[in-house]
Amino acid sequence: MDLDIRDMDLFSLNARLEQIETELALGLTRAVTLDEVKKLDASLLGKDGPLNALMKVIKEVSPANRGAVGQAINAAKQRIRASLDERSASLQTAAADAETSAALLYDPTLPGRFRPMGCVHPVTSVQWEIERIFTRLGFTIEAGPEMETEEYNFEALNIPADHPARDMQDTFWLKNGMCLRTHTSPVQVRAMRKFGPPLRTLVPGRCFRYETLDASHENTFHQVEGLMIDRDISIANLIAMAKLLLSEVMHREVELRIRPGFFPFVEPGIEIDMNCQICGGKKCPTCKHSGWVEILPCGMVHPNVLRAGNIDPDQWTGFAFGLGLTRLAMMKYGIRDIRVLNAGDLRPLVGVRRLSGAVIQEGAGTSGPPRLGISRPE
Ligand code: PHE
Hints:
By secondary structure, the protein is an alpha+beta fold. The chain is 42% helix and 16% strand. A seven-stranded mixed β-sheet has the order 1-4-5-9-8-7-6, sandwiched between helices. Strands 2-3 form a two-stranded antiparallel sheet. β6 and β7 (266-275) form a beta hairpin. α1 (10-30) runs antiparallel to α2 and α1 runs parallel beside α4 (63-105). The longest helix is centred in the first third of the chain and has 43 residues, at 63-105. The chain is rod-shaped. The structure holds phenylalanine.
């Protein structure tokens, strides 16, 4: 309703003011933030607002009416101002109240919230420990490819294509003619070719075999290969090294059992077994009720392998071992089922790591079974 004030009587002016105040009331029901109140303020009382438009034409009203018109407009303006200010003030107080009550809701005396924390995987942890032991002994740490050639995985290790020893390692063959390495031994020849003698190297790594999964077999597992080549290396060096390695990792003296073993790339080949750390030698499913676990197949590097690595077997001798890292980690942490290691369920792994050390040390060894086992609830 756009009235021209010059023609209107006081009655129509009041109608117009009432209309503006209705607009105000409606605006206030919608304005719930200070910003919205400010916008409403500008639209009603601002330069281009309706009240200003009325003020501008006061001077054109007949002198007889001018005073009354001016007063009516001013009074309306004051009422509008007051309503807007009141709403702004109450919104400000509400915001301050909300802040105070939020502050009151925080209770600094409450106990903190537990945030589960990850940890190093048991296999990685043992791997790092072994790396530390061997770097102290002057070994370098090497890595080889997980996708390996037939030559490095078998042939250079004295296992020709028609040799029955190939059947000992169920192999994942790839379409490109390569395979997923079945052990870390291929890095022996890689290291010999790369460094030449004398040589001390340690190769932790992931290996793969076409296995049926059960509590002690995985298709993906870890080994650590050790290789030492020098002028007068003998089997005595190898056994001393094995004892040092296993005792340091288990943080206690372990008992070893030495048996002959056959691997085409060592001569003589031996198997070093450790007394079962799960049952302390008392016989359990993990040690297949024998009290011993095969942990360290090893031997003196076969002359053919030295030759494949361009090393003269008349000048140099060496030993090699292939430690079952996964199995050792299971022994160390009392993990009874190999499948939890790759399963991606962090609960048993975090539990094992956190509770390891003291508990397993006092429980294991010859004095009885460790009290920690992931099959038991924490
Ligand atoms: N590579 C052998 C295996 O995986 C282990 C081994 C390594 C044996 C080095 C002797 C010497 O079964």
